[in-house]
Amino acid sequence: MSASATVLPEKATHQQTRTFNQQLVLRALHDQSPLSRADLARLTGLTRTTVGNLVGTLIDNGLIDEVGRGQSSGGKSPILLRVAPDGRHLIGLDLGEAQFSGAVVNLRGEILRSIHLPLEGRNGDAAVELVFQLVDALRADDRSPLLGIGIGAPGIIDTSTGTVRWSVNLNWADLRLGPLLEQRYRVPVVVANDSHAAALAELTFFRRSRPNNLIVIKVGRGVGAGIILNGQLFQGDGYGAGEFGHVSMGSADAPCRCGREGCLETMTSMRALVNAAGAVEPSITDESGLVAAFLAGVTGIRRIVLDAARELGVAVGWLIGVLNVRHVLLVGPVAAFGEDWLGEVQRSARSSVLALLARDTQIEFGHVHDDVVVLGASALLMEQQLGLGLVR
Ligand SMILES: [Zn+2]
User: Fold this and answer.
1) Which of 5, 66, 127, 377 has fewest C-beta within 10 Å?
2) Within 13 Å, how many C-alpha atoms sit on residue 177's CB side?
3) What is the pTM of this model?
């Protein structure tokens, strides 16, 4: 976000003005450090005195530090400043369906340490206990002050209150996960849907200039999408935007874990594929066995996986037809199937939507790998707490 995108309320209090100006300084340093105090005054339009005061406070708070001296333009060479990478640490969590993963992330968006804990069938309160265990383990031995905790979880998540309204696999309903963690750790907590978090991470690390609109489809044990419109995460009226894994496809009737039948997820998720493949080749019992059989070219398995890719492609075509978004990224364990799988999704999507729209749309694998949800949840927390994005 550019500095000018934030608007100060007309009758701002002294404290609001100070916070706003502090964010201007932080953002300038975040985008292009190192900078001198004079550079900061020029870039933010604030007076030298104001910049001097703000810089003093930010140094005292440990958010920025001095990194040596720059080129002199006549007088004394100026002291250069930057955002202190370890001035705060963040904890990012990905509450996946097979394991809970977490990482300590610094203010540069670098992952310092990751931990993965297998879920082993836990749900309800036992799954909440596992979240505590994960955060405790990540906090142990970390001496930097904690900015907060960012969480990506499957299901319908009310981000405004940190409430998991519904998460089938974890058996959580109206669970106030955010407040629970805030009480325990005394830091701000933000909770978002995992596909929404993945979309934020992909937007942050998009390898060309950042697109205004982006759809990120996460295919793992479930299927969900994160939708970025006009540079902002679109969550829908009830935080359920992108839940197209539970849209009936008409062509299927398998029971879905949501209680209905024939959802897209029952045909295209990794869970569905492992089950279907296991029925043909009993030796296949998990995702890695499935991927290995697919890559080895086992005929029956290739057919199952590519048929599913075509079904997913039809659904992707619907999204393109509805939103006309030109960048669609596919993320999650399905990326292991590689180009053959992707090609099938692309062909199917393109043939199910207006040729003109299809021609302009790029459907690719995502650019962020394993930590896409952890980084997305961290990005959301950074934006909320400091008004900063992660560094690309
Ligand atoms: Zn369903």
Assistant:
1) 5
2) 37
3) 0.90
